[in-house]
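FORM 7B - TANDEM STRUCTURE REPORT

SECTION 1: FIRST PROTEIN
SEQUENCE AND TOKENS:
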Amino acid sequence: MASIAKVVVEISLDREFDYRIPAHLQASIRVGSQVTVPFQSRELRGFVVGLANYSAFADKLKEIAGVVGEKPLIPDEIMKLAYWIADYYCAPIEHAVRTVLPSAVRKRGAKHKKQLVASLVNETGCPACDNLPPKQQAVVETLRQHGPLTVSELKERSGCSESPIKTLEKLGLVSIEESTILRDPHAGMELLRTEPFALMVEQRTALDTICAAMDQEKPGTVLLHGVTGSGKTEVYLQAIQHALDKGQGAIVLVPEISLTPQTVDRFRSRFGDCVAVLHSSLSDGERHDEWHRIRNGEAQIAIGARSALFSPVENLGLIVVDEEHEPTYKQDESPRYNARDVAVMRGRIENCCVVLGSATPALESFNNVRDGRYGLAEMLMRVDDRSMPLMRVVDMRIEAEKEGRASIFSKELVQGIYDRLNINEQVILFLNRRGFSASLQCEKCGYVAECAECSVSMTYHKRAHKLLCHICGAEEKVPDRCPDCGDPDFKYAGMGTERIEEVLGKLCPKARVARMDSDTMRKKDSYRTVLDQFKTGKIDILLGTQMIAKGLDFPNVTLVGVLHADMSLNVPDFRAGERTFQLLTQVAGRAGRGEKAGEVIVQAYTPHHPAIQAARSLDYEGFCSQDLEFRRELNYPPFSHLVLLTFKGENELEVMAAADRFSAQLERILPESVSHSPPVPAPLARAKGLWRYQIMLRCEHTVKMTRPIRHVQQTCRLPKGVTLTVDVDALSLL
């Protein structure tokens, strides 16, 4: 039996520490166990990441102080995954270990909720129970009728205080025991159970492909390319049933919390209580209990956003990554992992099948199919042979010429909204910008209200009558007059969802309008409440940002309007065209998902851009082929891996000097196959009060970049106040 444990502690030092295992803890310590250890002058928590019989520091080792819990919190396979994440994404191992375990589980004081439960000692009959005082008799009759109840429930139902209950306990007629109470995020929600639907030919072929991959000795990754409304979710459900029939579990990832209620309802309707949910909208207690339900084998299916990937599902048979192209799968803090790619790696480690589903797969996934790394299943027809929505692109330049000014809504879109409202059909309007207007501007001198901490203009929010920075969250009062020239007249330039909501109120005063963006969806159940109201026809027009652009299925939506569709094309990023194409295709897919035909009206100032035209004709392969050639010429992903180094600090000269020194040392040891740029200001040069400089590296093999970077990190000390972030496989250059 091993006598030494290798432990990573809860502070970021990116190294393991050896500790002696005392004899009385030998049987309880394993890889993945959470332990308390003496560290310098204090006691810290950490995790055992390895066991050994030898240490180079044998004479100086301290002993482990204690073990937290009876069994390891991190299974061996997930610990291997944590090490891969730390190595691949160039992150401290402590960050990776912290990532694979929810804070609600690992933090001090995390435990199950306990309550006192009362029950009759003899439920079949008790003569002594028939001649009791009235209040005691009421307690007994309540327990006979309802069975065991918590003491608080028993007091409420029987109308008694705690005194008669305690008396019955002393008489030996009632027992009171402490019991674990699970905090259930689905409490009180009644769902009708559903049976598997009959599949269309393409669905059946896709399911057969996935099941065949699951049954292989070494299951691989399958890209499920299915147009919006083609029935991908039913294929997921039946593939998961195949896993359950084999005694295996499954994980389902969705990119947005807003999609989770609808997805969870469909999966719970099919599979019942064996579904657990993990996402950030749950309370800590709910997340703690849901995670333990999975760990204890009470739930075989885990559903949630990015972090649900690390659920401790036993005998994992299938991982589904829905809307696999979504950038929300990429974490924006260390370790900056992409859940889609880590899912593929977990599949390899645990020998399970991974399904990546999307109507608009990422070019990396599409290229992996071309290169034979992934299998392919295609569903290019909608369920029940429903037609794809008709998409029309409106040139807003012509609209502005006709009206003599730029307008928010084209005549076609306004008429389309009126037509739908008149026949009780629903409308979705999409604009990827919240707030009332993009900026506050003085027409006299040109002054624009800018954030003092970031190199961006502030957004005006009318309801709060404030200027907000969408980068750092700073708030300012709206000035009465221009701070530069004193002129009292301001122009509100651009538009946001709040302004669209106001204009809609004037255009359609009788319509019931709801807005979904990060300003309105702040309460725990905001998503579910609004989506339920929309589903039941209590909302006529749903207006929102990206959170309404994908995954939602409402049969009565027959019109989708996209405002300022080319907004995302103006971002200085080689992925701008791909993101615009994906967004337009996904939001268009919300229309015509029922018996009624759907229509999409796209408003743009550059209507002939290849991304917009490809989305209009739903030409996924044509767009991919064109964009892949552009990327091949410039050696951008997927033909290389991209690593972005970002230096940040309050003093611009110090940040620039630190980036230059780091770059000089790195250049000396980089292989010739690595292409790299000199340090330059980031496109967003200042954010949250910090100046930002970047170095971009590209190479076919990630390790040829990350190993030199790690070496320089250890030898090149950054000045105080300057930090470095390493983003491997960066999705954004901002």
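SECTION 2: SECOND PROTEIN
SEQUENCE AND TOKENS:
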Amino acid sequence: MSVSPRPTLLSIVAHARAGALDHAWRLFREAGFEGVRDDAGVLSVRGRLLKDRALATDGADRRAFYAEAALAYAEAGALTGASYPLINAATLALLGGEPAVARTRAVQVLEVLDRDADEAETPYWRQATRAEALLLLGRTAEAKTALAEAVSLAPEAWEDQAATLRQFALILAALEADAGWLDLLRPPRSLHYAGLMRLEAAGVAEAVGLQLAAERIGAGYGALAAGADILVAEVLVARGAQLHLILPGGVAAFASASVDPAGGDWRPRFDALMAAAESVRVVAPGADPTQALAVQLAAEVAMGCAVMRARALATEAAQIVVVDEDAEGSLASRQSLATWTAAGRRRQVIAARRLGGEASAWPAAGNLRLAALLSVDFGDTEEAALIGEVLPALAAAAHPLAPPRWEGRRLAMVFAGPAQAAAAALAIRAAAPQARSAGHYGLLRAAPDPFGGAELLLGETADLPAQILAATPVGAIQVSDDFAAALHALRPSRTEYVGDLDGGEIRLHALKA
């Protein structure tokens, strides 16, 4: 039975989005698309793959791939006369070192838009496409006006605006022109917040409000304990910003441990914010919400979510931490500040007076472990290559907490954190392009191995990488939302949301080099 080209093209694009570019190209060739020049859809996918190839290289190779991608989009545009492939062809020609060709194609784009006012998908994209063509022609003042008008047509279409801003930044860099004016059009920034639980509230909300206004915050990520968390969250909601809650252990357990003991009106305020939140996410479900590792996991995920949103919207992430004016602050606050500062991000520390003496100690970790798990399937990688090339490359790049465990041609590894697991996964893909990897980061319970090996790590978290692996395309690396967020909290990373597992319970992200 024959397979229609359109689903095949969709599958190819899905593999490219998942970071399995080599496999996407193989599918493209096996489907017989390599020599197709009379199908605009095929040519556009070819342009997409070549653009991705350009982004994975640098120097002369990058320019060459950009030029090839431009040609593919130009051929698609010649077939359809549509502005989308034509504007891509124009911008990619500039990036490929052909500014004169870029200008010629930009003129064609303006002619298409002037001839058919309703040609593009939406009013935003029509005006943004016009702005991009004007920018390629060096008509910067007109481009600024057109882009500002596009933003006014869809003021909250932040992801669309971010895509345009990234494209404009590439153009301005290629033209060696100032890109500072783009900052005035960027979507609102995102925020991570944390701080004291028992504090003198006077003046804190006002200080937070000033910082949110100065930073132009549009969304905040953090927990909701009585004290600084609730104060910051209330200011966010009052200002019309989105509130995204990340709670350890579960909502009821968290409220019982971190809100109710404070008494007063903290619980009604907590309940009101829960109802007002844009999203509520639980990490380490079933864990003690006051356990240090559960709190650390929630903080890392919250920080990473703020960073991921900022990256998706081509803007920045900031942090507000409320600390004890007479001490260094809680362990959680110190960890959050240290992680954020190490990544060189924007932060603001607000001092407040602690009430009720010293903070209570957190429960000891006991047999709990916070770890990153990586499951790898080497697929049809030849055994000689696996033994002679892949495993030595992995050994040089990977530093697992315990010896890896083999299950046939699958390998399971445990790492101290997502950065180490990500490095191992990327090393494997570089050495074995047909391998696929899956990762998760979370709390596990350790038990002694009765057969004398390394300790066993048990629980639902331990089973998740195998489930993710089953949904991972050949050549791709897919990780859970908690893994991706914690990775972004620690260092600049490149991931892309690719879908959900278990009916939406777990979001999956492709990890890219």
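SECTION 3: OBSERVATIONS ON SECOND PROTEIN
Residues 59-80 form the longest helix (22 residues).
The radius of gyration is 25 Å.

SECTION 4: SIGNATURE
Preparer initials: ____
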